[in-house]
Structure formats: structure tokens, C-alpha cells
Design brief:
18% strand, alpha/beta, Rossmann fold, 5-stranded mixed sheet, 7-stranded mixed sheet, 428 residues, 15 helices
Length: 428
């Protein structure tokens, strides 16, 4: 994908400013909502397996908690940056608001590559993260979750460290935990399924059978895999999947014109979402450059990797057949692409609506932990579907009524809800 200097935090602020202008938001509310409420930057010394000590940079940023405790994942990534975490914390605020759950926005990260760390080193890093930030975490303060290259085991180590420090059982302080240890059934499916619930409802509104559509997906981590599973289960055909090959340090697109077998691909990927190239070739997949996912002649593009992937330079490679961009990743489209998307008549389903299934299920996990009573997977997924469908129709109705771009409609609903909470609390 194109290397560029797009700053995700500036992107988040531009998107906010655009809607704040349309809402004629007062100056105090603008100033409060276009930047984080609190930022924590810290170092984490970790004793490595060889006896040396390595120091990692960690962050936790809380954007806004007017509607409830801050909520958001913790990323482990070698290219992590403060501005990315700021943007993600801001998007989490809008994400929680657009699906109307009583949480605010936060995000965390550590600059590291867990692929190069042993399990024991990863555990010490997780525990070190919590030791540095435990006073700013809590079920009613800030509730982390897994994100890019973190998982349920990382969350359980963090929970254990928090409970050791604080003394007591606080399963609601972290979500995304293993099932049986305070985790919720349905969590691994939630974000990807939520993406497709939104897409399905949009196609219904447009009178398009999902079984008549094709898609190309960027990414094959948890979100992309379960989005692809649900999409194909409903009858759609995934033509291509692009993912990062960690052993080679480059991306590939795996294509099968008759349709990718998602179960098959899931069996030959590693825990970080990298598909085994040789095994895929043996299974009859064509191997294309990583950027080619966006060039496919499909009806739907689903970016499900990282931010800033669809830029004006990349946009020109999109086939004229594409009618929908369904944003499963956070901030995959740069603001200067939005006018191009509208000019081409492509329908955009915005990220913080599409991928809100994850935080919705995290909220369900909090509720279950607080009650000490856990639901079966059917109940979890039914509640998830209800929440996502309701949120979609709220956004779609506003977009239709006011002739708004879907991203602007989603922002309008979310910002209004948060600004009202800020006003009622007397913060602005």
C-alpha cells in the first residue's frame, strides 16, 4: 500500500471539525471534543529471556468519558505512534455513541513487535504495562481490550496483574478475556459479524440480494476472517483476500475467481493473520501483489487492516464495478478520498459504525462480569445483531432524510450524543 505522511489524529480532527461546523457546535464543546481529556506516556522495562533488560514505550489515552468509562483496545505494534492512539481513542468515543452504549473512548499501545518476543517476554510486557497505568484503569474508569496483535491471553495476564496490585476480583476491568475466565462467548466473532450486519441491512435497503454480490478484503486477522465467514454464509462471494506475510515482511493478495474458501484460509493462517503462501498456492489460489486487493472487479471493498489505506493515489485503482466500501478497519480512508468516493457514486459504510460490534460485545462482557452471570452465544449474538441493526437504521434514516454522506450522518448522531452529555454535566 502507498506509503504516505497522513496523520490519523489530524484525520480524526478533520472529520470532527467538518460535522461540528454543520452542527454549529459551541466553541467550548469543540475544544473539549477535538482532543483527548488525558494522556499517559510511560516506559516499561522488561527482563528478556537472555537476561538483558529492554525498555518499551507505552501509552494510554482517554479521549472522553462524559457518557461512561473510557473504553478501547491496547495495541502491540512496531509502528505504533501517539497520534494513531489519539485518533483511535477519539474514534472509540464516536463508536460507543453511535451504537448508544454507555461508554466513552480510550486507546492504548506499546511500541513492540510481539512476533519477535517469547511468550514469557510478552507476559512480562503485559504485566509491566499494567504496573505503570493501574491507577488510571478500573471498571468505572477505563476498560481496555485486545486490539492489533494482542489477544485474550494478553488480557488475562493484564487482569491478573491488576487484581494482584489492587487486591480483589475485578473481572470487569478488562474485556476480551478467555471464555471461562470472565470472557464472553461471541467476542471473537463480534466485530466481523457486526460489519456484515451493517452491510446486509444496507443491501436490503437498496434491494440488492447479498447472494448476488462479490467482495475483496484487505486483511485476514480476526475482524476480516469473521466478516468473510458471515458474508459467505449469507451467500456473498469473496474473490480476493490480502494480508501481510510476516516472514517476508510484505503483503500478498490471494485470489480465487470462483470464491475463496474462508474456512480453508483460516486453517492455513498464523495467529497474526498471515496466510501461508505455499499452502495457498497448493490449494489453487493465485498470488498477486498486496495492493491488488483494491483493483479487483467486485461489488464491495472491505478494508479490514490498518488506517490510511485508501488515499487519492490508491483510489484511482478502484474498479468502476465497485459500488460499496465497507470500512471494517479504523480510519482506512483518508479525508481527501471522501469527495472522490461521493463523486463516483460509491456508497460508504463508515468505520465507527461498521466495526462497533467489537466494543458492543465488550460492553456485554462488562455487564456479564458485573452480574457474574453469563449468556449463551445465541443470546450474545442476538443482542449484538439488534444493537448493530438499530444503529445502522438510525444512521441510514438520517442520511436519507438530510441527504447526508453516511460518514457525516454517523458523526452527526455520535457527536450530538456526546456533546449533549458534556452539556448536561456542565463541562461546556
Amino acid at each position: 500500500m502507498e506509503q504516505n505522511s497522513y496523520n490519523p489524529y489530524e484525520t480524526a480532527q478533520l472529520q470532527f471539525d467538518n460535522v461540528a461546523d454543520k452542527l454549529d457546535l459551541d466553541q467550548a464543546s469543540r475544544q473539549l471534543l477535538r482532543q483527548p481529556s488525558r494522556e499517559y506516556h510511560f516506559t516499561i522495562p522488561v527482563k528478556m529471556d537472555d537476561g538483558s533488560t529492554k525498555v518499551f514505550n507505552g501509552y494510554r489515552i482517554q479521549h472522553n468519558d462524559a457518557r461512561g468509562p473510557a473504553k478501547g483496545g491496547i495495541r502491540f505494534h512496531p509502528q505504533e505512534s501517539v497520534d494513531t492512539i489519539k485518533a483511535l481513542s477519539m474514534w472509540m468515543t464516536w463508536k460507543c455513541a453511535v451504537v448508544d452504549i454507555p461508554l466513552g473512548g480510550g486507546k492504548g499501545g506499546v511500541i513492540c513487535d510481539p512476533r519477535n518476543l517469547s511468550l514469557s517476554e510478552q507476559e512480562r510486557l503485559c504485566r509491566g504495562y499494567v504496573r505503570q497505568i493501574h491507577n488510571q484503569l478500573g471498571p468505572n474508569i477505563d476498560v481496555p481490550a485486545p486490539d492489533v496483535m494482542t489477544n485474550s491471553q494478553h488480557m488475562l495476564w493484564m487482569l491478573d496483574e491488576y487484581e494482584t496490585i489492587v487486591g480483589g476480583s475485578y473481572p470487569g476491568v478488562i474485556t476480551g478475556k478467555p471464555v471461562g475466565m470472565g470472557g464472553s462467548l461471541g467476542r471473537k466473532e463480534a466485530t466481523g459479524y457486526g460489519v456484515i450486519y451493517v452491510l446486509r441491512e444496507f443491501l436490503r435497503e437498496k434491494g440488492i440480494p447479498i447472494s448476488s454480490t462479490t467482495a475483496s478484503i484487505q486483511g485476514f486477522g480476526n475482524v476480516a476472517e469473521y466478516a468473510a465467514r458471515m458474508y459467505t454464509r449469507l451467500g456473498g462471494r469473496v474473490i480476493a483476500v490480502s494480508c501481510w506475510n510476516s516472514s517476508e515482511g510484505k503483503a500478498y493478495t490471494f485470489k480465487k475467481e470462483t470464491g475463496c474458501d474462508i474456512e480453508e484460509l483460516a486453517r492455513i493462517k498464523d495467529s497474526f493473520g498471515s496466510i501461508d503462501k505455499e499452502k495457498a498456492l497448493d490449494l489453487g489460489y493465485s498470488l498477486l501483489p498486496g495492493d491488488d486487493w483494491i483493483k479487483q472487479e467486485v461489488d464491495i471493498l472491505i478494508p479490514a487492516a490498518l488506517e490510511n489505506q485508501i488515499t487519492p493515489a490508491v483510489f484511482q485503482n478502484i474498479s468502476s464495478k465497485v459500488k460499496i466500501i465497507c470500512e471494517a478497519a479504523n480510519g482506512p480512508t483518508t479525508p481527501d478520498c471522501d469527495p472522490l468516493i461521493q463523486e463516483r457514486g460509491i456508497s460508504l459504510l463508515p468505520d465507527f459504525l461498521c466495526n462497533a460490534g467489537g466494543v458492543t460485545c465488550s460492553y456485554f462482557e462488562q455487564v456479564q462480569c458485573n452480574m457474574n452471570y453469563f449468556w449463551d452465544i445465541e443470546e450474545v449474538l442476538n443482542k449484538l445483531e439488534h444493537t448493530m441493526v438499530k444503529a445502522f437504521h438510525g444512521v441510514f434514516s438520517l442520511a436519507t432524510e438530510k441527504e447526508l454522506y453516511m460518514r457525516d450522518a454517523a458523526y452527526t448522531i455520535a457527536i450530538k450524543r456526546v456533546a449533549e452529555a458534556v452539556r448536561l454535566r456542565g463541562w461546556a
